[in-house]
Amino acid sequence: MTAQDVTVLDSYKPKLVKVEDNLTAAAFRFMKIFPAAFCLRRVQEEGWTETQPLIMQTSSCNMALGAAMICNLHGFPLTIISDSVCGDLLRIRLEGLNATLITLAEPGVGSECQKTRIDQIEEVRARIPNHWWVNLSDHPGNPGAYGFFAAQLIEELGQIDYLVGAVGSGGSVCGTAGFLRELFPEMLAVGVDTFGSVLFGQPRQTRRLRGIGSAVLPQNLDHSLFDEVHWVTAAEAYKATRRLYQKTFLFCGETSGAAWLVASYLARKNSKARVVCILPDDGELYRGTVYNDQYLRRENLWLAHLPEAPREVAFPADAGPGWSFMHWGRREYAEVIRCENPL
Predict the structure, then answer these.
(1) Which pLDDT tens digit goes with each residue over 151-160?
(2) 3-31+141-336 domain in CATH 3.40.50.1100?
(3) What separation, in Å, do the N-terminal and C-terminal C-alpha atoms of the chain show?
(4) Which of these, 162, 232, 264, 321, could form a disulfide with 236 (CB 3.0-4.6 Å)?
């Protein structure tokens, strides 16, 4: 890692903000730059050269931006395949970093959009010889990138009882929890998902909440690390994000709001426990959605009040229609699904 890399990454390290007596928020400016840097460094070590085009599938637009930042820093060519979710602001930022952006001509509908993107990426790979394929959702360097973060939490906070984070690729929560469990084996890891995501056994459906959940199971998601799983709606996440800003002045995206909603509940319920929640990015890309009343009302995402607590369920299929949770119990995915469908 060059001195320039260190300087850039240090500027993006999270601030640990005490938002309640026993709740600390790890507020990142932009978290995805860390797995992007770590994975691309691994690619270099595996023999990638600057003359070969790099193709990356994006599981989220933020991961694409992180890769674009690191590739631009080193002068690496980057092609990103995205879909209609990539808005104008993000497109400008990606192209400003010299990334080549390919947008799906005919994106899939709802939950099929992610699968359609994967299919088209295979078509593009077949047309471009001598390329490197870095799938950051499945690359083992993704969770490995969070060792520095776990060390920061230990150094500044010491004992941690709960780690709460939204789950997409599984990298941040699984990586951080895996490192922390080496010192705190009893620490509880809590994943936050959304309805329609298949990550924890919900049926695949159209998801309104972006940056959280998935239509496919990523290889980086280690289900056996999780003690609890919570599912929240898009409206609940948006309302929580606005509430987080009003209470703490932390201007974040909806993924952060979803994590804070769950973490705040756990902190109230367990007053003697030290709770940490991961807030992965700021709210700049979400001014037109989360922080836009007209958008929320037009999309039927306006919520007057947040629920005080989630509804407990025994199986993933029982979750909903609003905020729900279940005791996952550090079980593998197949074990939970088998218990839900014994025949």
Answers:
(1) 999 999 999 9
(2) yes
(3) 52
(4) 232
